[in-house]
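Below is a filled-in request sheet from our internal design queue. Each sheet records the structural input a requester submitted and the sequence that came back. We keep these sheets so that new team members can see what a complete request looks like end to end.

REQUESTER: design group, bay 2
PRIORITY: normal
MODE: inverse folding
CHAIN LENGTH: 622
BACKBONE (tokenized):
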């Protein structure tokens, strides 16, 4: 779709290939380069639109900010001379700020048809408000992560004499590629700021999140710190700041709205961030960071302890291990990050899903691309493809996309068999049952959904997780289904009844990968707490803990003979563990960016890995 940039156009939606709006006749291209495809937001100072850059690779996205102050704003902002002056100031500031990795880069700024435009880098991901809605309340660990991620960004912009003035959950995006937090929406809010920041009457910011002095038209750097504090409290309570405000005390009374206790240290830090008196509030981001780093949490209420391992944790040796001399074959063809891969049951085919919104079919032995969606095969997905899977007989293939669908395809004809709607949620993981009769999906709905492969009908819901589901897997006998979630648990379900059999507790952060051993006796789980755990499926007992110091999510898979376990690591490598000795055997090097998926071939002779570097590698096992 192409979206008309004329603010008064009554029917702005147009076909992809149109050059002029079919409703108002205006050109659909900005400077013969940028084409808007969807409206993202609209406010008093203009609009924000998702766009594509026609001069770059296919599907290269960016964000257009179109500035036109509404009639209700002071005349100085609606005068053309003043608008241009403010626009140029803003563009210059964004050009400097965009040098920070957690601020969108400024790509272009120009004027067309008497309107000013800023083009910025598109940040793929969900904002913290969406994450809260989908995954539930934030934990202390996650709030500390938010603070430690964003405070250095505020320190950077304040050093450049810039006040953001609109920090809130919607303006913080968790980037898909590395999960770092990106601060957005500098442009629209700042375009209306007067040159004299102390001028009373400049009411810029979001109600409930703006500091008292900002509401009086006198924002300072500490105003951003106040907004960050309120943002954290909102993520902890999911309660409107207005509902937390006590007019008698003159502050937010938020602790009684907590559903989980937090440490006294974090509570005092948040209290100081939201002080209505500027003198009693933190003055700089550096002060907050210093307090966070100097305190060790002591909890006012105790939480249930994790299930202790029956054996002592096995630590990765601190010495550098010698990398395996295993050779690799690199498959190139995707134009975006490769999020998912799967071997066919006979090992003759490999399918991949990517951020370029395509799925591709490969010959993994020859390294040859066989089919791709852009050639007319498997057309249909409108967003990144996050998961792929083969049925046990190799006749059916499934792909899950962030366009909120799971699609089943005939591997021979490319015909779409079923489109399973996940709306309004997305699926992060899919898995076929061992006999191929069922397919399970799990994602932002916090539910595991079970579908009949033959009919495409949903037959069962598995309810229990309180936050986003990252990963699911069927037991080899097909009677048990495992799911891992941001609620830090793994649940084992009875496939026939939908009832939970066991809840595995022990991770201290999101569980992002689960895998059953080929004999079905053991389940391996990996999470963002840098821990791999091995559990007894029958008893739910934690058998071993493998601690990884690389700070990486652990995507896992067992070898077909069950003797080794492969996992990803933060330094773009694969680690192969000997499960008899519980020691690392060797490390595979080759990718240049984050590894998203790994899979053993059915004969165990090769391992496939896919990465943010847009490649797939096929490794020979020793």
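RETURNED SEQUENCE:
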């Amino acid at each position: 779709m192409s979206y008309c940039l004329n603010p008064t156009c009554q029917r702005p939606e147009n076909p992809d290939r149109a050059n002029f709006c079919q409703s108002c006749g205006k050109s659909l291209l900005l400077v013969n380069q940028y084409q808007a495809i969807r409206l993202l937001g609209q406010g008093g100072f203009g609009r924000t639109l998702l766009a594509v850059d026609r001069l770059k690779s296919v599907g290269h996205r960016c964000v257009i900010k179109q500035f036109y102050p509404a009639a209700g704003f002071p005349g100085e902002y609606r005068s053309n001379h003043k608008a241009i002056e403010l626009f140029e100031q803003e563009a210059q500031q964004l050009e400097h700020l965009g040098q920070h990795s957690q601020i969108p880069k400024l790509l272009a700024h120009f004027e067309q048809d008497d309107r000013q435009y800023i083009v910025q880098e598109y940040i793929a991901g969900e904002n913290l408000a969406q994450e809260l809605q989908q995954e539930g309340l934030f934990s202390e660990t996650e709030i500390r992560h938010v603070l430690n991620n964003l405070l250095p960004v505020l320190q950077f912009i304040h050093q450049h004499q810039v006040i953001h003035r609109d920090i809130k959950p919607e303006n913080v995006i968790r980037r898909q590629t590395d999960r770092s937090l990106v601060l957005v929406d500098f442009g629209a809010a700042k375009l209306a700021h007067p040159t004299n920041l102390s001028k009373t009457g400049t009411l810029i910011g979001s109600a409930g999140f703006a500091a008292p002095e900002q509401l009086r038209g006198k924002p300072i750097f500490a105003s951003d710190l106040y907004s960050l504090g309120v943002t954290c409290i909102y993520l902890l309570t999911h309660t409107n700041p207005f509902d937390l405000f006590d007019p008698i005390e003159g502050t937010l009374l938020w602790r009684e709205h907590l559903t989980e206790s937090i440490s006294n240290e974090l509570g005092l830090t948040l209290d100081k961030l939201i002080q209505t008196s500027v003198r009693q509030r933190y003055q700089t981001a550096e002060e907050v960071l210093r307090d966070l780093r100097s305190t060790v949490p002591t909890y006012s209420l105790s939480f249930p302890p994790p299930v202790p391992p029956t054996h002592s944790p096995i630590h990765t040796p601190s010495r550098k291990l010698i990398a395996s001399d295993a050779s690799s074959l690199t498959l190139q063809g995707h134009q975006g990050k490769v999020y998912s891969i799967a071997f066919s049951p006979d090992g003759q085919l490999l399918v991949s899903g990517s951020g370029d919104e395509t799925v591709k079919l490969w010959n993994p032995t020859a390294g040859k691309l066989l089919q791709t969606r852009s050639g007319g095969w498997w057309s249909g997905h409108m967003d990144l493809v996050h998961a792929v899977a083969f049925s046990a007989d190799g006749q059916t293939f499934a792909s899950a996309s962030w366009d909120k669908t799971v699609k089943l395809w005939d591997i021979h004809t490319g015909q779409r068999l079923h489109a399973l709607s996940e709306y309004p949620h997305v699926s992060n993981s899919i898995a076929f049952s061992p006999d191929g009769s069922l397919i399970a999906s799990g994602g932002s709905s916090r539910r595991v959904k079970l579908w009949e492969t033959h009919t495409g009908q949903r037959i069962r819901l598995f309810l229990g997780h309180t936050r986003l589901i990252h990963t699911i897997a069927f037991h080899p006998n097909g009677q048990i289904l495992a799911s891992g979630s941001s609620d830090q648990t793994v649940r084992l379900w009875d496939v026939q009844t939908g009832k939970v059999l066991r809840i595995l507790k022990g991770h201290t952060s999101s569980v992002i990968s689960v895998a059953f051993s080929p004999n079905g006796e053991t389940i391996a789980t990996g999470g963002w707490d840098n821990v791999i755990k091995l559990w007894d499926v029958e008893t739910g007992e934690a058998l071993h803990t493998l601690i990884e110091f690389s700070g990486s999510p652990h995507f896992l898979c067992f070898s077909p003979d069950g003797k080794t376990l492969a996992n990803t690591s933060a330094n773009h490598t694969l680690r192969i563990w000997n499960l008899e000795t519980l020691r690392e055997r060797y490390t595979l090097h080759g990718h240049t960016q984050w590894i998203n998926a790994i899979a053993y071939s059915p004969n165990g002779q090769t391992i496939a890995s896919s990465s943010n570097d847009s490649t797939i590698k096929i490794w020979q096992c020793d």
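SHEET NOTES:
- The first helix runs from residue 75 to 78.
- Residues 71-78, 188-202, 296-325, 374-378 have pLDDT under 50 and may be disordered.
FILED BY: M.R.
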